[in-house]
Amino acid sequence: MKFTDIFIRRPVLAVSISLLIIILGLQAISKLAVREYPKMTTTVIQVSTVYPGADANLIQAFVTSKIEEAVAQADNVDYMSSSSSPSSSTITVKMKLNTDPNAALADVLAKVNSVRSELPSGIEDPTVTSSTGGSGIMYISFRSNKLDASQVTDYIQRVVKPQFFTVEGVASVDIYGASEYALRIWLDPKKMAAQNLSASTVMSALSANNVQTAAGNDNGFYVVYKNKVDTTTKSVNELGNLIVSSDGDKLVRLRDVADVELNKSRDAARAVANGSDSVVLAVNPTSSANPLTVAEKILPLYESIKNNLPDAIQTDMLYDRTVAINNSIDEVVKTIIEATIIVLVVITMFIGSFRAILIPVITIPISLIGVIMMLQTLDFSINLMTLLALILAIGLVVDDAIVVLENVDRHIKLGETPFRAAIIGTREIAVPVISMTIALIAVYSPMALMGGITGTLFKEFALTLAGAVFISGIVALTLSPMMTSKLLKEYDKPSKLEERVNSTLTKVNNAYSYVLDLVMANRKCMLAFAGVIFATLPVLFNSLSSELTPTEDKGAFLAIGSAPSNVNVDYVQAAMAPYQKILTDTEEVQFAMTISGVPSTSQSLNVVTLKDWNERSRSQAEVLQELNNKAKVIPEVSVSGFAFPEIDTGEQGPPIGFVISTSKGYADLANVAGKFLDAMQKSGKFVYTDLDLKFDTAQMHIKIDREKAGTYGITMQQISATLGSFLSAATVERVDIEGRAYKIISQVKRENRLSPESWNSYYVSASNGTSVPLSSLVTMTLEPQPSSLPRFSQLNSAVISAVPMPGSSIGDAIQWLQDNSKELLPQGYNYDFKGEARQLVQEGNALAVTFVLAVVIIFLVLAIQFESIRDPMVIMISVPLAISGALLALNAFGFVGKAGATLNIYSQVGLITLVGLITKHGILMCEVAKEAQLNHGKNRIEAITEAAKVRLRPILMTTAAMIAGLVPLLYATGAGAVSRFSMGIVIVSGLAVGTLFTLFVLPVIYSYVASEHKPLPEFDENIKPIEGEINH
């Protein structure tokens, strides 16, 4: 190809093209966003409805099922789960990846509104919220030695929380351990009975005397008076003086039948941070926000909040997710610099001339900076994926320049002048350089076409690499030839370093020639060897564990404590105290937080932050294992810690959620799920298992004697109102105190609702006004009931949450669950997955298809280039050889228990990358062999033997440069190290073993399979077509 001549003749043109690439890249750097992963939108919508005092069955029949039916019609729903528990219904709608969060929220809201009129009276309006579904990006604790939790909460609600919403990208701020103030009315059933007062009378008096009045204006001749009327009781005193009933001079005030106080509205969750009672704020970003920019804006705001706090309140930042992200990004940038330096050293060792080394080295900054311009054009960001691609690119982009340099250098040593050598050498090598560039781009292009999470993650990775390779191809054919003609000297007396390099490489070349001649003489042995390698591939593949992403050391983890379902928050808090002590006594732990009563009444959520990576010797996995072992000695509660999910997919809780669903009743379902749980515990594959459906909560079933009640003239409505006002803690009214609305809540004191016997002191008013004991009208039976009724996709369901044993992967666990469900689940029962496991099941084979596609595309590209179907088959033979090397390394590291030595998305991408890298060697050899056949009339064996010897040096140089560039990935530490190791080990081992095999196996296969090339037929323009007519 002669088009390269112009760049050698016109150096300014060649330099200008490279400068243009650099300038466009530099202007793009400042404009790109920095993220953890490529932008993906995960949306989880939650519909919560409160029906104070209602039991779970009532809520499921009249609330949950109604709303579920409507919401199921929304678009783009991945799955819907719900839980009906006493007093509340929660429906969680997980949308498909990259669904527009605003459209989804509007859609669900419209569906909920359509059934609002069908919900029971006395119910609070459903609240619909949208979030990313994962755990918050920040947890901040507030504590005080002088103020109680309600006072701290009041300060947070009034002063702190509103400030967080000024930050763009904050979706919600959850307050844990909070207890908002309310005016509490503690009714005394005996005093009410003594005054012959019914609950309905007291509630009616409260509602009638607490109303909001909009009294308009008085309009005089020239003056307007605005009216403000106090029609609510704004203080404890006013509320206590409220007249509930009057009969002549006999007045009964509220304080005569109840105690009134300003106290916490409910006591459902309590938070302890670093051993002291706290109120914890969790900041959740919106679905489309970038957590890094949100956190960056929150930190200065948090400092100003901290400085303005009253002396009585202290605060700590317990957990900041972005610390690990920033650390990870810094580590990758450091790796890029290390890789560049190592590549420089390796190239110097192979070339020996410091002038010549400039030629391949200059391609690194041009390609890496130039590709950033492409990122900007495609609206990508700087993230862990694009940075990983840049690390791989360092070894890749020097390859083309090395091949050009080596070929020109060969001609100079044969006696050509640098100018002539540059033109001749570049003409020879242009086609292989173009085809190697196209081959690499062809490998990555299928990755850009993938869907789902894997597609979202690797689209940017693939296109960054493809872009870098494309730019390096341009540089190798424009700038590199020009630089060889200017920088390389005529071949006279080489320097000492060059002499040493040349003599070493000559020895290597001679040794290789000797061994290759032996191999070509005994070709059948080599074929048998290749056959053995092919046969072992399936075995090597099947022996690997699989997971979506390897578990990283993020410097923080979660733990969930589960107590028996029928216990209250006091029990959970007391039971978790020993675990809190274990955490604070662990040297590596910086902050530890325990929230009792979250995610359900009998559970506790723990977030543990470890010290900085440099300040601790043990990894997160080691600390976690030790804490899980220590937690086993706590008898009252089962606690298990697990890592935060690697990729925030909107799933919460342990990595495996195994959902068993059926249309049958909960009793049958609990029985089947219980047997499955036993099998899981006996299997030895899981370190933690927990079933969310257990019949272990005591429910009082109350039957009313309607005959007797009717005789007294007592209606069901009266009994319902009495029990509601005594026990449900429902909101009666709201009053405004200093510009904020506070609830008025009625309930009997705790000593009057300790057990079923308490009902002996409850009274209902008969039609003649006398008080009748409620216990005389009802009979009670105790029966077991689940604490909540879960459903999945509108079917009754039970979820078994599990964490795999250390050393066992999520993939192995899923395989076990799928195999055993066939035997253990009866007909009419289905299974599904939640958590990280769901992602792995959905995405499992996506990369396998891409891998096949990449191989097919490369094959077709090579077939076009070589005008042969057989030559590409020879080149592709090195792919399985390289993969065998990679799988051997993964199996070896997996055997010794090294983290990341599994089949995960990173190692799979490494395998796809390997396809492109290893085919380059074959392209270089086969191109020379084809020329030798065409121009020198050699047969296949002579042609490939000569080609292998000529191309040994560039093959060794490009392999060494690529491997050297990836060495920093192998000893990476800190955040994100495991995934980098996963990708690095596959490419390094695969390329090293693959190159070794290629150098000997490929020539043998070529001698059997390759096409015998003959010149393409020529058409002579001078011969005129034959004319005339055909005689039949």
In short:
With 1032 residues, the protein is of the alpha+beta class. The protein is built from 31 helices and 30 strands.
Structure write-up:
The chain is built from 31 helices and 30 strands. With 1032 residues, the protein is α+β, with helices and mostly antiparallel strands. The model has no long low-confidence stretch (mean pLDDT 88). The protein is elongated, with a radius of gyration of 37 Å. Helices cover 52% and strands 19% of the residues.
Characteristic terms for this protein:
single chain; 1032 residues; alpha+beta; 52% helix
Categorize the overall geometry.
Answer: elongated
Radius of gyration: 37 Å
| Range of strand content | 15-25%
Termini separation (Å)?
Answer: 49 Å
Low-confidence stretches: none
- Approximate helicity band: 40-55%
Overall mean pLDDT score? 88
**Tally of strands:** 30
Please identify the structural class as seen in this structure. alpha+beta
Please give the largest β-sheet: 9 strands, antiparallel
Number of helices: 31
